[in-house]
Structure to design on (72 residues):
């Protein structure tokens, strides 16, 4: 069995397996490193997760940071 590595980058908007209690399920990656910090785009609450946990809980990338830049 091959585990597919999820790709994400700083500034990406990602969807998690569980939405935030505020009802929003779109998080912006605001810090990359050993730990990943994501910020809820609905209420601005931020959460710090170890990278392994983040990768388990992340569902998919909704908007890539590179795409956002190209729209500006
Ligand atoms: Zn929220």
């Amino acid at each position: 069995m091959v585990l597919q590595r999820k790709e994400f980058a700083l500034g990406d908007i990602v969807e998690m397996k569980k939405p935030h209690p505020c009802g929003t399920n779109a998080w912006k990656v605001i810090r990359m490193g050993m730990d990943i910090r994501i910020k809820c785009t609905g209420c601005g609450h931020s959460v710090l997760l170890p990278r392994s946990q983040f990768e388990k809980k992340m569902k998919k990338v909704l908007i890539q940071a590179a795409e956002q830049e190209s729209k500006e």
About this structure: The mean pLDDT is 90. Residues 13-65 form one domain. The pocket of zinc ion is lined by residues 20, 22, 24, 40, 42-43, 45 (CB under 6 Å).
